[in-house]
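Morning F.,

Quick status update on the modeling queue. The single chain you submitted on Monday has been processed. Sequence for confirmation:
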Amino acid sequence: MEIIAALFMDDIELRPVPGPSTRIDLSGVQFSAPAPAPAPVTVAPHLVVLVWNPPGGKETAALEVVFVGAEDPAEEPDGDPMARNVQPLQIEEGKFNYRLVRPELAFDDYGTVLARCRIDGGPVHVVPYTLLPPVA
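Structure tokens below.
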């Protein structure tokens, strides 16, 4: 299985179209957001991870998402993660699916965290999320 996209967003909607086929409508795609209150604050943004299982692929796997401070995204993070989520995946060969992840992220100050997404310990797909000061 392969991660084809991962994004923070407000809403996801699936709709059928002739084929059979399905459209995935994402709204409110974001990489930053103002804090709901002054720091320290906890937020719970929605992350959607889109996954494809190519022909000949294994039909079961585990999706792991680890949320860490914004160190170098190419390196493994040091220290404890801010949050971690592991979910099973079951996707037929040649099909697509998605998983929603909604972490509780405690920010002591405004800044960026990285969602490090991977399947079965494979390559890491990194998605940044920046918490901005609240809007007055």
